[in-house]
User: Which sequence fits this backbone?
């Protein structure tokens, strides 16, 4: 199962061929898969589950979870159906008239005594476990009201006044009930906003408290800190629900808050456009990767604002390209629905709050279908924004100090690579692998940690008297100075910096990757330190991965090759050995992957030796030979200390493109932030 584009329009959309009708076709395609799991039209839209180890409901889950899964299936599939019905009200899926189906099951879901009743606030509170004070239903009620508004004339306006009252009574319990202090506040705001549209009196102070709380998360450059981390929840939650709330309530009742939401949303579409590659593809990063192309949502929802600043041609290009990135692949779908993975099933990236129906949140960008056919989002010619001037030996860098993200579009290979910081987790936390990395790459998705030594795009520290290696769980941001990004990573950080092992990180881009000039800060001895490149997935159907080694006077390279793609780990100083290992079950792209990495050892405490590791991790598309400056971008490295260890003072990196990049760690400590 995969979406096939019919009659593409390459005049209006020269890169994707996608127009408004193709988006509507994509909605029908997705619903065909969802409805293939229904045995009859009396059922709620649930999927046939294939993953039982992590996703809910589990046998030891709260009893509320069984109802939450059903609500996710209903509300999130409705986010696909509602914008479709707005334009194709007579649409039928698998012979089931779509409007009649959702009109009926939505009413059944809020009707006590019906077999499809999903329980209201009071019932859930009564069966909740100790400490369970908020419910997934709150999130799904927000999706439900978005859908009801999107196809208002087709479904909502056809309910009787008593039926509307029943639905609103149900919604009110969740709109006024306990929520979570992160993006969930927006769910309550939308529920209350919908009730306001329907003429119900709401607690304006409660709404204002939610609104001011959302604004308090704003960090800058368009990004909100979602609770305590930065990730795609900013684009696919804050910048979708915020503009919707402005239209329903904010512009009229809370203009100051609404103005801030609009300002931040416009800032986001500017900075965030730097985080997609030349194909318009999304990079795997952070939690909830199963929402995939939902990351492009703010480029559609920006046009709900009174004064949008987004480029309509770019907005449609990146939204269409990211949609096709996933629905155009067979491995994305299991039993007709998107898998719990990035492409295929991938257990290491699944979180316990997700169920088989959760991926339907890929529908968030479908808010674009509420824009009329004559809107610039649909009529502007596709363009790739700044990518139009990023080619050959160039790169485009975007610094976002607010969230501590520095992204770069690499003209040499068309990839997007971004480096993140400002993240802290408990040692061993399951979220560490999807946040605390040296970088994230659109061509090489992050791989799971196996804690068996070297890890993909991260340092690993193994004290030989300990049982297993350590990886950083804290990444601090020190900003960009003279073209160099400075960060600091701590291993096994718990409560104090004193005595903790760390790495001072410094890196800067070249046209096909990144050069790293990192310095060890490890007080103990008797350890092995490794750093891996990106994982290089292997698909047996596309030929074997080949390993090639090339040596120059001042550098060594290990190149991994598969048809159409090459990745190199290049040591320009500090590493004692370069190695490659094959790993199983850690990649979202295949069962096996290869990892090239550098390794060094220290046998004594306070051992005086090389402190700085100079590394290039570079890649290219195609099977052709590397140019010398592509593979070995560093001409020479000059150190301040007489031994050339990088023990103290600046490090001058002379590049083959003529640059001299000076890395100076002095005063980095005073700039570190989280």
Assistant:
């Amino acid at each position: 199962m995969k979406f096939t584009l019919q009659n593409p329009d390459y005049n209006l959309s020269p890169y994707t061929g996608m127009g408004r009708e193709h988006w509507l076709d994509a909605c029908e395609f997705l619903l065909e898969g969802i409805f293939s799991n229904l045995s009859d039209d009396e059922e709620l839209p649930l999927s046939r589950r294939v993953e039982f180890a992590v996703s809910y409901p589990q046998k030891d889950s709260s009893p509320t979870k069984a109802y939450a899964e059903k609500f996710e299936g209903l509300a999130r599939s409705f986010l696909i159906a509602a914008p479709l019905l707005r334009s194709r009200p007579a649409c039928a899926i698998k012979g089931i008239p779509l409007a009649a189906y959702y009109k009926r099951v939505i009413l059944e879901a809020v009707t006590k005594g019906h077999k499809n009743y999903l329980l209201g606030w009071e019932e859930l509170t009564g069966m909740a476990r100790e400490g369970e004070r908020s419910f997934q239903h709150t999130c799904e009620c927000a999706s439900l009201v978005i859908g009801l508004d999107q196809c208002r004339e087709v479904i909502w306006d056809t309910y009787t006044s008593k039926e509307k009252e029943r639905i609103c009574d149900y919604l009110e319990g969740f709109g006024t009930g306990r929520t979570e202090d992160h993006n969930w506040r927006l769910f309550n705001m939308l529920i209350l906003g919908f009730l306001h549209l329907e003429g119900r009196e709401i607690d304006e102070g409660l709404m204002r408290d939610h609104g001011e709380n959302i604004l308090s998360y704003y960090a800058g450059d368009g990004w909100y800190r979602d609770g305590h981390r930065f990730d795609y929840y900013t684009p696919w939650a804050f910048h979708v629900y915020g503009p919707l709330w402005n239209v329903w309530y904010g512009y009229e009742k809370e203009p100051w808050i609404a103005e801030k939401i609009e300002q931040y949303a416009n800032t986001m579409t500017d900075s965030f456009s730097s985080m997609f590659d030349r194909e318009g593809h999304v990079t795997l990063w952070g939690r909830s990767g199963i929402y995939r192309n939902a990351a492009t949502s703010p480029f559609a929802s920006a046009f709900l604002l009174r004064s949008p600043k987004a480029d309509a041609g770019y907005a449609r290009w990146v939204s269409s390209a990211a949609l096709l990135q996933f629905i155009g692949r067979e491995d994305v779908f299991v039993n007709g629905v998107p898998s719990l993975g990035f492409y295929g099933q991938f257990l290491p990236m699944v979180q316990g709050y997700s169920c088989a129906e959760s991926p339907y949140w890929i529908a968030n960008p479908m808010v674009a279908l509420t824009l009329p056919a004559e809107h610039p989002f649909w009529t502007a010619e596709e363009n790739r924004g700044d990518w139009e001037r990023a080619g050959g030996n160039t790169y485009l860098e975007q610094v976002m100090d607010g969230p501590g993200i520095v992204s770069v579009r690499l003209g040499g290979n068309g990839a997007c690579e971004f480096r993140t910081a400002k993240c802290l987790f408990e040692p061993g936390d399951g979220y560490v692998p999807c946040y605390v990395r040296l970088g994230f790459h659109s061509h090489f998705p992050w791989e799971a940690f196996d804690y068996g030594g070297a890890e993909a795009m991260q340092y690993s520290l193994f004290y030989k008297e300990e049982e297993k290696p350590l990886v950083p769980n804290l990444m601090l941001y020190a900003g960009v100075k003279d073209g160099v990004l400075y960060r600091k990573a701590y291993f096994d950080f718990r409560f104090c910096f004193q005595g903790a092992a760390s790495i001072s990180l410094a890196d800067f881009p070249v046209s096909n990757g990144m050069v790293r000039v990192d310095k060890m800060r490890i007080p103990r001895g008797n350890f092995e330190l490794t750093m891996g490149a990106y994982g290089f997935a292997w698909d047996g159907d596309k030929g074997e991965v080949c390993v090639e080694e090339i040596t120059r006077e001042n550098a060594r390279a290990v190149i991994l090759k598969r048809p159409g793609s090459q990745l190199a780990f290049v040591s320009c100083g500090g590493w004692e050995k370069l190695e490659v290992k094959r790993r199983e079950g850690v990649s979202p792209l295949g069962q096996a992957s290869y990892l090239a990495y550098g390794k060094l050892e220290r046998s004594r405490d306070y051992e005086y030796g090389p402190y700085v590791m100079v590394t290039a991790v570079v890649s290219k598309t195609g099977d052709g030979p590397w140019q010398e400056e592509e593979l070995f971008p560093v001409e020479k490295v000059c150190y301040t200390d007489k031994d050339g260890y990088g023990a103290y003072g600046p490090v001058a990196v002379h590049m083959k493109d003529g640059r001299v990049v000076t890395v100076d760690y002095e005063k980095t400590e005073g700039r570190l932030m989280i």
Summary: The chain is about 30% helix and 25% strand. The CA atoms of residues 314 and 632 lie 34 Å apart.
